[in-house]
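Bug report (template v2)

What were you trying to do?
Predict the complex of my protein with succinic acid.

What happened?
Run completed; filing so the output is reviewed.

Input:
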Amino acid sequence: PVDEEQQGLNKQIVINFSHVVAEDTPKGQAAIKFAEILEQKSNGRIHVVIYPNGMLYNDNNELKALQNNDVQMIAPTFSKMTKTIPTWEILDLPYLFHTDEEVEDVLNGRIGEQLLNQLNRVNIKGLAFWNNGFKQMSSEKKPLLKWEDFKNLKVRTMPSHVLQSQFELLGASSINTSFDELYTEVEKHKIDAQENTLSNIYSKGFYKVQNHITLTNHGLLGYAVLMNEDFWNSLPQDLQDDVVEAMQEATEWNFQIAKKLNQQDLEKLKKDPNIDLNTLSVAEQKKWEKKFKPLYSSYEKNINSTFLEEIRSEIHH
Ligand code: SIN
C-alpha cells in the first residue's frame, strides 16, 4: 500500500520569492530570515529560493508573475499595489505617520489585517506587511529645503496616485520609473530628485549622483508580503501553520532590522564628505503638511471615508 503522507514528506515544496531590492536591506534581510525560519519549522519540507534585485521580475511584471504562479511570493511596496487596491493609498499619505511605533501599530494590528483582507478580491493571499522606513529626498543639482525648491523638477515616484499628486502639489512633475531602472535614469540625469529610504538610497548608490539628501521623513515605505492564493490553498494545514508562524517571526524581526539598517546607512552617509545632508526644518514641514492637505480630503471623498479616522484613532490611542 502507498502511504501518501510518507510520500508527501519526500517531496520538497519550493517557494520562489522574487523581490526588487538589494539583499542588505530591510526587505532583503527579512526575506532571508523568513526562508531560514520556514525551512527549519517545516523540517526542510519547504525550501524558499529568493531572487533579489529584480533578477527575475521587476515592478512592472512581478504581480502578473505571482498571479500566474511563476513565482509563489513577492513583496512589492504597498504604493505599487494601489492601482489594484486603491484603499491602500492611505498608507502613502504624507505625514500620516510620525514614528516607527505608529507604523508598527497600524501595519501589524487590526487595520493592517483589514487592509490585507482586501486582497481576497484579487485571489492573492496577503501574509503580512513589512516595513522599510520613512522616505527622505535625494536630489542632484540643489538641496530641497523649501517646498518652492521643487518647482519644475522632475521627481521619480512609484506608480501611486497619492505619490504623484504629492509632488505635483509642490510644483514638480512626476516620472514613474521601475525600481530596477532607477539607477540608470539617475545616472543619465533624467530625474532631478526622488524619494526613498536611506537603506535604498545607500544600497543602490543613488547618493553617488544625487548627493543632496534632505531628511524629511515625509512618507512611509513598506511592503505587502504576498503569496499566490492557489499555491497557498495547495499547502496542507500543518505547512500553512508553519508559513504563518515563520512570517510572524520574520515580520517582528523585519521591524527591528529596518530601524537598524536605516540608522547604519545614515551614519555612513554622514561620514561621506561628498554628501550634503540636511534636515527639513519644523517650520517648513508645517508648510508641506498644509500643501498636502488636499490629498487627505481627496482620499476621504473618493476612496474611503472611514479608514483615515480609524488609523488616526489607532495612532492616538
Ligand atoms: C522597494 O523598496 O521595494 C523599492 C522602492 C522603490 O521603488 O523606490
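What did the reviewer find?
The longest strand covers residues 212-228. The chain has a mean pLDDT of 95.
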